[in-house]
Specification:
CATH topology of the largest domain: Alkaline Phosphatase, subunit A
Strand content: 15-25%
Number of domains: 2
Structural class: alpha/beta
Number of helices: 12
Largest sheet: 8 strands, mixed
CATH architecture of the largest domain: 3-Layer(aba) Sandwich
CATH class of the largest domain: Alpha Beta
Helix content: 10-25%
Strand order of the largest sheet: 5-4-8-1-9-12-2-13
Distance between the termini: 57 Å
Length: 511
């Protein structure tokens, strides 16, 4: 029987969807209104250099839960098929969809918590397959079954049934999280709660977000979201985009969605305080991946372009952690850390053994939460992947390698922090590139599962429809129905022409 220990802290993890690290007031953005995230940062730690494991939703979420990189768990793109059987949501699901448990047999930290007496609840976006079935130790399971969609009249799974809820989805997800907390009141059993918002994922157009939230940005100039004439030459049809009034409408919706999620965070913090458990609850806030809202001329994240990009605006995420009286207050951490570090950190902080430590790339940063220093490491780097695109990043340099043919990128992050000058063709950097590529390949050779290796998969950013590699038994696993948006905003479907453009624009101008 699972052991119970009421002295162990509760954990609440709030995950937003497509929120750039730059999109918080506490991160220096004077336009977006996030008073509750700012409150969380003021009472805890904010990490400035935190990275996702892959700059798109499903792979990143799988890495948070399991501590595995995509080339270990096999989720390499956003899950397009495998959420629900088609007849469960007529008119919305894919015609030939079926339920696929993408993380079957892979240990999640929530399973370890459940085995040690935690009651685990989930509210919101799952997006890791077979949405109808509670997984990974969760016993409370009101779930949004898909990756995105309208913020009103969305599908929800409750008590094993699919239903529609006409209300604003962000408020629905918050309410379901609050219900779980109400259920824990007076219990001596520790609890874990995941609140996974769809916000601020698109859609952002008028009518998708409450007027009071949109009105917060009625006069906003949006200087925090740069305008790049013509956009990025690799932009594909991954996110809405526009200029002039259309741009203002979309950015107002994006920021309104963030403020809506922020409002939910405030309600959760207030509930924990009213229950008298705030000081015994570690609250974690992060996003699944970064986001470009005009940054680098891109609208979208890692799959805002083809080939996929690894700009910091795509791979860096917000990360806040607080527990009054325990976690240091108003501290900004600049350590290079990743979502694959979350599993070992939470288990370490709670005081539980990590049964899969030897197989995972992540390391615990729990000492920082206790006000202690991290043990020294020989060389601190973070890694990222999105199918055949891989990144190695130090404080000073970033190298991006695209298998098998490129184009590759090298950025001097000290002299060029906004990644505008690609130095991969600079003869003076040849030795550095060889060494960084060696480190990159050594690391992935150590941790990647050859049967799920992303460099062997034709990932395009348009969605995963089946298990990859051997597990998929040769079935088609990744979709390719993207189209290219040229500098004039015109749709281009000629992929042969497109690949020619990539090779021509992959030189020292950083494109």
């Amino acid at each position: 029987m699972a052991s119970r220990n009421s002295d162990r802290p509760n954990v609440v993890l709030v995950l937003t969807d497509d929120q750039g690290y730059w999109a918080m007031g506490c991160a220096g953005n004077e336009e977006v209104q996030t008073p509750n995230l700012d409150r969380l940062a003021a009472t805890g730690m904010r990490f400035e250099s935190f990275f996702c494991a892959s700059p798109v939703c499903s792979p990143a979420r799988a890495s948070i839960l399991t501590g595995r990189i995509p080339s270990q768990h096999g989720v390499h793109d956003w899950i397009r098929k495998g959420n629900l059987e088609s007849d469960k949501t007529p008119g919305l699901g894919w015609d030939d969809d079926r339920e696929i448990e993408y993380l079957k047999g892979m240990l999640a930290y929530t399973e370890v918590l459940a085995d040690h007496g935690y009651v685990c609840g989930f509210s919101g976006k799952w997006h890791l397959g077979d949405s109808l079935k509670p997984q990974k130790g969760f016993s409370y399971w009101p779930v949004f079954p898909y990756g995105g969609g309208s913020y009103y009249n969305g599908y929800m799974i409750r008590d094993g049934k699919v239903e529609r809820d006409p209300r604003y989805l962000t408020d629905v997800i918050t309410e379901d999280g609050l219900k779980f907390l109400d259920m824990q009141a007076g219990n001596d059993t520790p609890f874990y709660l995941s609140v996974h918002y769809t916000a601020p994922h698109s859609p952002w157009h008028r009518g998708e977000h409450p007027a009071d939230l949109v009105d917060l940005y009625a006069d906003c100039p949006f200087v925090s979201c740069p305008e790049v004439p013509g956009g990025h030459p690799w932009q594909i049809n991954s996110a809405p985009r526009g200029t002039g009034e259309r741009r203002e409408e979309l950015l107002s919706g994006y920021y309104a969605a963030i403020s809506g999620a922020d409002r939910g965070v405030g309600e959760i913090l207030d509930k924990l305080e009213a229950m008298g458990v705030l000081e015994n609850t570690l609250v974690v806030f992060t996003s699944d991946n970064g986001m470009n809202m005009g940054h680098h001329g891109i609208w979208g994240k890692g799959n805002g372009t083809f080939p996929q990009n690894m700009y910091d605006t795509s791979v860096k995420v917000p990360m806040l952690m607080a527990r009054p009286g325990h976690v240091p207050h108003a501290v900004i951490g600049d350590q290079l850390l990743s979502h694959y570090d979350i599993l070992p950190t939470l288990l370490d902080y709670i005081g539980l053994d990590n049964p899969v430590a030897s197989a995972l790339p992540g390391r615990s940063f729990a000492p920082l939460l206790r006000g202690e220093a991290l043990p020294p490491r020989d060389h601190v780097v973070v890694f990222d992947e999105y199918g055949p695109v891989r990144m190695i990043r130090t404080r000073e340099w970033k190298y991006v390698h695209r298998y098998p043919y490129g184009p590759h990128e090298l950025y001097d992050l000290v002299g060029d922090p906004h990644e505008t000058r690609n130095l991969s063709d600079d003869p003076a950097q040849a030795e550095r590139i060889v060494e960084m590529k060696r480190q990159l390949e050594d690391w992935f050779a150590r941790y990647a599962d050859p049967t799920r290796d992303g460099t062997k998969e034709p990932v395009t950013g348009k969605g995963q429809v089946d298990l990859p590699g051997i597990a998929g038994k040769g079935r088609h696993a990744f979709e390719t129905d993207w189209w290219y948006i040229d500098a004039d905003g015109v749709r281009r479907d000629d992929k042969a022409w497109f690949f020619g453009e990539i090779l021509e624009t992959s030189g020292s101008d950083g494109k």
